[in-house]
Structures are given as C-alpha cells and as structure tokens.
Amino acid sequence: MSEAEVVKGLRGVLERIQIACQRRALELPKIQPRLVAVSKTKPKELIIAAYEAGHRNFGENYVQELVDKSHDSEILERCKDIKWHYIGHLQRNKVNKVVAVPGIFLVETVDSDKLATTLDTAWAKQVEHKGRLKVMLQVNTSAEEEKNGCPPESAVELAKHIRERCNNLELVGLMTIGKFGYDLSQGPNPDFICLKKVRDSVCDALGLDCSALELSMGMSDDFEHAIEMGSTNVRVGSSIFGHRTKK
Ligand SMILES: *Cc1c(COP(=O)(O)O)cnc(C)c1O
After folding, report:
1. What is the C-alpha to C-alpha distance for residues 236 and 164, in angstroms, rounded to an integer?
2. For a tag site, which of 94, 114, 126, 174 has the least CB within 10 Å?
3. Is pTM beyond 0.90 here?
4. Domain segments of the chain as ranges
5. How far is the centre of ligand 1, averaged over its atoms, from the C-alpha of 164 (Å)?
6. CA of 37 to the centre of ligand 1 (A)
7. Which pLDDT score, from 0 to 100, does residue 180 have?
C-alpha cells in the first residue's frame, strides 16, 4: 500500500461510517463513532500519512510494536497529537511499557482484577501523565476458550473493582472481538447483542446511564453492522492499510 492508497482507504471507511450512522435506531445516542485505525504490522510512513490526512486514533495489539512506534522520533515529531489505543492481550509484566507510551489514550483490553490493579498502580507512578488512564473492559462474548476477555457474567464485578478500587483508571466502556467470520445473513451478530446486554447490566449495577459506557465493537468485515447496533468505537485495520501478512 502507498501513502495515497491509505489516505483513500481512510476516507472510504469514514464515509461508510457516516452512512451506517444514518441507519442506526433512533434511540441510539447520536454520537459519531470513533474510528481506530489499526496499524499493527504496518510501517510508520503509513501511520504518518493517515495522521497528516487528519486522523488521530490508532490501534496496536503487540506491546513491543506499540512501544517502538510511539517512541519513533519521526512519529514523535510529526504526530504530536496522536492517540494510541492498546487493543491486544496485556500481560501484567508488560504493563509498565504500556503506561510509559507517549500518547497512550485508551487500553481497551482489561480483563481481570489483577490486571486492572497493576495498571492502576503503574499509572500512578507515571508523573508526566495528566488525569486518569482510560480503560475498557474486554468481554469474551463468544465464550471461545482461546479468546481473551472476562466472561460476560464477571463483567459487573470487574467494573465495580475498577470503579471502586482503581482511582487512577477511568472505565469508559466495554470491548469485544467476537467470533471470526460470522455470517450476517443469520441475523444480528450475537457477540454485539451480548456486549450490549453486558453494558446494560453493568450500568444497572453501578447506577450509570447507559450512554456513560462506550461499546468498542466492529472491525473491517463488520464495522457498519456494529455501528447500526450501537458501537461507538470501531477498530479497522485491513480496510485502511491493506491486508496483513501473518507474523
Ligand atoms: C487486528 C485487529 C483489528 C482490526 O482487524 P481488521 O479485520 O484488519 O480490520 C481490530 N481489533 C483487534 C483487537 C485486532 O487485533
């Protein structure tokens, strides 16, 4: 992919997001979903091209790759307002690297009390950061064993743990990856239905308005459908940056 193709891909996805928004049910909040451009495995030149075309939110799911890209001198110089989303599985021994990322905006994959506590403590030690670290709860909505995320029935407890015990974290939403290759002709994606239900029960239990928690769901193959179902944060890689070769 060339820089020009990436900018074109980005514009195309933004346009499709707009159109999908118009198909949303009326009761869904009218906010414009955030597009996270998932740049994993892709070179920094393409990130810079998307940034210079006006894009700000980027997602990475390997810690070392996020560390390398976020500390790259050219990215630091040319992408001063970049917002990094960490969207991969996070091991507790890598937390210190993630909280030290310049421009870290949101960790979408908190899935246990222990990980939340480790992030909370690590963030408190980062004197250069202002405010709390935004996090999302990753929920394993498809109950596939190889998938990360907390089981749907543990989400309320984990959300309470973050809200009550982790003063340096701000719980902003829930995230799911969902089953790969779901056939939409079978009806609305059950992972998205499940995440919405989990969000409702968390909001009920914590006494929050539902609009207080975001839904991060939808990738290249299904982001329009996810938006129609209420997604506020879509994570799109290959439709912007082209296909990835496996690591
Ligand atoms: C890679 C990845 C994406 C983007 O996938 P595409 O199908 O390329 O859009 C989204 N979310 C997560 C968690 C990912 O790891």
Report:
1. 32
2. 114
3. yes
4. 3-240
5. 31
6. 9
7. 83
* Atom 10 of ligand 1, nearest CA residue: 235
Which fold does the domain 3-240 belong to in CATH?
TIM Barrel (3.20.20)
Give the residue whose CA is nearest to atom 6 of ligand 1: 237
* Amino acid found at 68: D
How far is it, in rounded angstroms, from Cα 40 to Cα 237? 8
Cα(29)–Cα(169) distance, rounded to whole angstroms? Answer: 24
Tokens describing residue 228: 């129609």
**Closest CA relative to residue 6, chosen from 174, 237, 223, 246:** 237
Ligand 1 pocket, Cβ-based, cut-off 6 angstroms: 38, 40, 61, 87, 177, 219-220, 235-239
Q: Which residues pair with 58 in a beta bridge?
A: 37, 84
| pLDDT band for position 181 (cuts 50, 70, 90) | confident
Helix or strand run (H / E) with residue 17: helix 3-22
How open is the CA angle 59-112-206, to the nearest 5 degrees? Answer: 95
Q: Look at residue 144 in the predicted model and tell me its pLDDT.
A: 82
